[in-house]
Specification:
By secondary structure, the chain is an all-alpha fold. It has helices at about 10-40, 50-75, 85-110, 125-135, 135-165, and strands at about 110-115, 120. Helix 3 (about 85-110) crosses helix 4 and helix 3 (about 85-110) packs across helix 5 (about 135-165).
């Protein structure tokens, strides 16, 4: 599969972004509703909408970056033959994901200070704070996206192999 790179058309990109936004949107709804239920237990008149904002913004940034990671994984799959190059490539992808995630997240919506429950104005310091403060979450998101990408590639490979066996 790594020897031939499949053509990626506009339709494939649109479908990938559709799935990405649908999946991450459901995840945002789940996270926001969990935060709402926690707050609602102590404050029965709380509204759901404020609890959806930050998860929706995080999920939108993730949804924007998920298809490029899937397509990069499709183009350069991890293999035992080129373990070191593959490892370096994935470290580079992780660093690029973290930087791009923070820039997209920071551009869409300002940072939210959980302690003071207010939004922080955009500045270089708030961007760096987003990288440092959310580093573990971003690495975990990257790892989960890569697991999903590799599962998708394994599924596609098994479909191609099954079709090839049928056509024999």
């Amino acid at each position: 599969m790594s020897s031939q790179s499949p053509k990626i058309g506009v339709r494939n990109v649109a479908v990938a972004y559709g799935y990405s936004f649908a999946g991450w949107g459901l995840f945002a709804l789940l996270m926001g509703s969990q935060n709402f239920v926690i707050r609602w237990s102590s404050e029965p008149h709380a509204s759901l909408f404020p609890f959806l904002i930050v998860p929706a913004v995080r999920s939108a940034a993730s949804a924007i970056l998920t298809p490029p990671l899937y397509f990069a994984t499709l183009k350069w799959p991890f293999s035992k033959k080129r373990f070191l190059i593959g490892g370096l490539r994935y470290v580079g992808l992780a660093a690029a994901f973290i930087v791009c995630f923070c820039i997209v997240r920071w551009t869409i919506f300002p940072n939210f200070d959980v302690v003071h429950e207010r939004f922080v104005p955009r500045s270089f310091d708030s961007l760096v704070g987003l990288v440092i403060g959310g580093f573990a979450d971003q690495v975990l998101m990257f790892v989960l996206i890569m697991f999903g990408a590799h599962a998708w590639i394994a599924y596609r490979s098994s479909q191609v192999q099954a079709l090839n066996q049928i056509n024999l």
